[in-house]
Amino acid sequence: MTLILDTPTPTTIRTPRLSVSLRTLTAQQQIAWHQLLEDHYDATTPDQIKALHRTAATDFGIYLPDGDELVECECDDCYCDSISARSRCAEYADGNVMRAQCQACADTHRNYGH
Predict the structure, then answer these.
(1) Do β-strands 97-101 and 90-94 pair in parallel, antiparallel, or remain unpaired?
(2) Single pTM value for the model
(3) How far apart are CA 56 and CA 84, in angstroms?
(4) Which of 16, 31, 73, 103 could lock 80 by a disulfide, CB 3.0 to 4.6 Å apart?
(5) 90 with 110: CB under 8 angstroms?
(6) What's the pLDDT tens digit per position in 5-32?
């Protein structure tokens, strides 16, 4: 009698990224990102906003700490399109508006506002 054992298949564990470039997302994910931005303004409770951002972070494979939200880099010095958790960004005042700058941009050409 010959016993044939199945060979084990490796399990892929996907480690969440800290940020993702909008250009590297699929067309469907890019549409989802823009829809999230629209839905964010229509949400009426903080729980709805958190759920939107948590769902998008999962879809994009981005690590999002509890209670945080996703933001796109608003760097004035380059054409960065990085999406990451707000807590991973440097913030600066642009007049009366707070802007988020991704960690890579903040490290190379930090904005201090106007």
Answers:
(1) antiparallel
(2) 0.77
(3) 11
(4) 73
(5) yes
(6) 555 555 565 677 899 999 999 999 999 9
